[in-house]
Amino acid sequence: MTKRIVSAIAAAVILTVAEPLYVLDGDCAEVPSVSAKAAVLISADTGEIIFEQNSSEKLPMASTTKIMTALLCIESGGLDEEFVVDSEAIKVEGSSMGLREGDTVTKYALCCGMLLPSGNDAANAAAVRIAGSTEAFVKLMNERAQELGLSHTYFATPSGLDGEGHGSSAYDMAILAMEALKNETFRSICSESTVKVEFGAPPYPRWLKNTNKLLGMCDGVYGVKTGFTDAAGRCLISACERGGERLVCVTLNDKNDWNDHISLYEYGFDRAENIALRPPVLHSLDIVGGEEEKLNVFFDEADLSVTSLGDSTDGFEYQVLSPPFIYAPVRKGDEAAQLSISFRGRQIKRIPLYAAESVEAKRVLVKKSKGSGRFIKFISGLRKLLF
């Protein structure tokens, strides 16, 4: 039942432009001074801005690019399928996970190689495996950027190495990180300080180390990605959770990025808070072919907690996403539909709607003719003779 529902509504995508939603005045405490050319701190749930500095300016973002590359790689599926890396794809300068010609690897290992040691070889190998070429993969990256409304973003390379027009804004990258962290596999990988994977010819165990030192420096940090080129300077995207409140921070071209992120989180967690959303009461959904014509549904109250800048629920909108028809039978606790939650026009999450009770399929009575009854008796007698 769940797979039917998910596949039926998976195409429901809300296209918006990722423009800053709201800037909070810093009248409660001293606003941090950061050395970044551009910076932003947002709610990881709503995208609301808590702090910003040139957050809409398009700048080079170096290897933080790999957030998009890794997300598309994970979403392409088949993460544990082994294959031999393309020999040309891995011939790339800069940081590496250590791939060599003829190595057998998996997409999962490549994602680890991108997000931890920031392997340019991993990014290119994944791009070629998924799209056939880095150029074709870059097209997929830009298409996804458009879907997310990243209006100040253009990708020219899967790795983040310099390319014509390659760049993004701090706010766009924060929205990209916010989206990527909704993926459990992505979040799990980028939150690890070290990961053990296997690759080689033949594969053997390796340990990959994360370049994100903030994981051990700042309480609650669970990702996301570092980056550096001469043109971009030091770039850092991180995410932090404390007491159920979730924030995302981005600094571009920042010589003091570790300390700036720590200062911004101290500032941000004083202002953000968890609020409980209040969607309209959902009574029931139509169901086809059941003993009942309506299916009562419910949701997990815990799914309705979001990090926001105030206690008002204004600006949140709700939409039930369901297939054209829900067919019986349905068992109590089955996922029957989803509730889409949007904030100021941008979808921020979808939560499951579960069946509150079981609905059996409607019984269909078939009237037997005299002839059909005699035939059944003949078959029954024949079975006794044979068996």
Jot down its keywords.
387 residues; five-stranded antiparallel sheet; 2 domains; alpha+beta; disordered C terminus; Beta-lactamase; Peptidoglycan synthesis regulatory factor (PBP3), Domain 2; 25% strand; single chain; 26% helix
Structure description:
The chain has 387 residues and is of the alpha+beta class. It has two domains: 234 residues, 3-Layer(aba) Sandwich (Beta-lactamase), CATH 3.40.710.10; 80 residues, Sandwich (Peptidoglycan synthesis regulatory factor (PBP3), Domain 2), CATH 2.60.410. The protein is built from nine helices and 16 strands. It has a five-stranded antiparallel beta sheet with strand order 2-1-9-8-7, sandwiched between helices. Strands 11-12-16-15-14 form a five-stranded antiparallel beta sheet, covered by helices on one side. The protein has a two-stranded antiparallel ribbon with strand order 3-4. A hairpin with a 2-residue loop joins strand 15 and strand 16.
Number of β-strand runs: 16
What order do the helices and strands follow?
A: HEEHEEHHHHHEEEEEHEEEEEEEH
Name the helicity range: 25-40%
Mean pLDDT across the residues is 89
* Name of the level-1 CATH class of the largest domain: Alpha Beta
Task: Provide the CATH topology of the largest domain.
Answer: Beta-lactamase
Write a compact overview of the structure shown:
By secondary structure, the chain is an alpha+beta fold. It is 26% helix and 25% strand. A hairpin with a 5-residue loop joins strand 1 (38-43) and strand 2.
